[in-house]
Design brief:
The complex is a heterodimer of chains A (218) and B (373). With 218 residues, chain A is of the alpha/beta class. In chain A, 32% of the residues lie in helices and 26% in strands. Chain A folds into 2 domains: 108 residues, 2-Layer Sandwich (Nucleotidyltransferase, domain 5); 74 residues, 2-Layer Sandwich (Nucleotidyltransferase, domain 5), CATH 3.30.420.40. Chain A has 6 helices and 10 strands. Chain A is globular. The termini of chain A are far apart. With 373 residues, chain B is of the alpha/beta class. Chain B has 2 domains: 180 residues, Nucleotidyltransferase, domain 5 (2-Layer Sandwich), CATH 3.30.420; 172 residues, ATPase, nucleotide binding domain (Nucleotidyltransferase, domain 5), CATH 3.30.420. In chain B, 45% of the residues lie in helices and 17% in strands. In chain B, the strands form 2 sheets. Chain B has a 5-stranded mixed β-sheet with strand order 3-2-1-4-5, with helices on both faces. Chain B has a 5-stranded mixed β-sheet with strand order 8-7-6-9-10, with helices on both faces. In chain B, α6 packs parallel to α8 and α7 crosses α9. The longest helix of chain B has 27 residues. The two termini of chain B are 25 Å apart. The chains are: A alpha/beta (218), B alpha/beta (373). Chains A and B meet through α1 and α2 of A and α1, α2, α3, α6 and α13 of B. Bound molecules: zinc ion (ZN). Zinc ion binds next to α4 of chain B. Chain A: This is tRNA (Adenosine(37)-N6)-threonylcarbamoyltransferase complex dimerization subunit type 1 TsaB. Chain A: One of its GO terms (cellular component) is cytosol. Chain A: Keywords: Transferase. Chain A: One of its GO terms (molecular function) is transferase activity.
Amino acid sequence: MLLLALDTATPAVTVALHDGDAVIASSSQVDARRHGELLLPAVDRVLAEAGLRLDAVTGIVVGIGPGPYTGLRVGLMTADTFGLALGVPVHGVCTLDGLAYAADIEKGPFVVATDARRKEVYWATYADSRTRLTGPAVDRPADIAERVAGLPAVGAGALLYPGAFPQAHEPEHVSAAALASLAAERLAAGEPLPEPRPLYLRRPDAQVPKNYKVVTPK
Amino acid sequence: MADEPLVLGIETSCDETGVGIVRGSTLLADAVASSVDEHARFGGVVPEVASRAHLEAVVPTIERALKDAGVSARDLDGIAVTAGPGLAGALLVGVSAAKAYAYALGKPLYGVNHLASHICVDQLEHGALPEPTMALLVSGGHSSLLLSTDITSDVRPMGATIDDAAGEAFDKIARVLDLGFPGGPVIDRYAREGDPEAIAFPRGLTGPRDPAYDFSFSGLKTAVARWIEARRAAGEDVPVRDVAASFQEAVVDVLTRKAVRACKDQGVDHLMIGGGVAANSRLRVLAQERCEAAGIRLRVPRPKLCTDNGAMVAALGAEMVARNRAASSWDLSADSSLPVTDPHVPGAPHSPTHSHPHTHDHVHEISKENLYS
Ligand SMILES: [Zn+2]
């Protein structure tokens, strides 16, 4: 087994290779505005570090969010297209599950929250690092403060709003290494992984830019 | 012919997901998936809706294009993609797909300019583009007059609209006349039975001191709307056919007059017309008449190649391969305001303006070693 994992649902552009036993190479860069530029060079670097070519990969693992849409789509589109070109399966993993796995908490419950912008967080609760209890959902921190009161929390969304998440700590962003390890575990156990389709959790903004191509209702 | 480059092109700059495949100047496939119906209820293209639709449509559209062309992805000589201009989020979906596809197949990547692609597509219809060529691009998104001596390296803006695109004016007037959407074809149809000289609508930017090659359709649009409203306010019937014909005449008169003048001024003997408005029958007739009178050869591709599509991107990509232009690098970005003067976005490893020259060099070397040898 050789899994290539990637995630662009948080400010991190993160890529890892997993051979079924362990992560053999990885790269993470934090730059929320340059997912599109950074992802392919990162894949190239990680493969070179492992001394492997992309066609050795037997499966793709991709973070399906939730996350800011523009960046999220970079990872999903890249994974889909790799799958098409290589003829290998593409597996989705909820990005928050990857963060929960990396948090390495034996006994919860705890919260994972990432920055959803517009003063909201994407969040989910976990019984332990491998078991999601609720979510993912998108909410204002103040609106969920009561529900997460007293729980430890990880992720940039938690670190950003200490009022709602006083017990926030690292990891801040997801790592593809965690995503790959979680996926490898699930695949080895014969557990299904989600389809590689985006978790947007919000409807698109229906804003039409001025002076753009106009279409009127039929 | 088998020596000519086999190139797949991906276009996602607006609401059409286009994938085309060409061999040199021969069209092999032109697959398009449109999200236009999803935008109709909003009254315009919603960028986020377009981006979501592209993500779902790209892979199936690539598969369909390969099947239509009857070629294997392994045999491609390059992957081309619209790098800009267009909607940022929508462009990024196509660029991400093209990069992943090129990388996985071990093929060079060419990020190309949407406007230059609109010009280059005519090679699929009428053979090699004459050099120089004057191009009039008119659609719902653009109205430009461009001069190209080499479509892979030299495209010069001669003029552009200072307000609305020509296609927008057609849609807006169709709406005022309650003719529905899209405006272009329906106005064209009514205009055929109307008198183009019935109403003297203004010709924007045609005064002696106005810029010779720029366009303006905003004033015309307002004049037509006011004329219709005045009739309605007076309780009179609106002569839809005459209004359509007179409005259309005002648009195509200015477009063709300025295009022919630009050809004459610059000593160019070929004019190509592209973009969705190039399907307008009166534009084609008047352009033909005026070009003939001026000794200019007119080239207009079939309508399906004039609207946004992947074949035009593949056509320009094939020309990049044929002329040995530098491929793009793996950190190619989508540029929503890519200047028309950049027909493509070559990798520039030694450019001091490059943000990570060292990383970039490194990546390029690795890529060659891994994939191209
Ligand atoms: Zn266009």
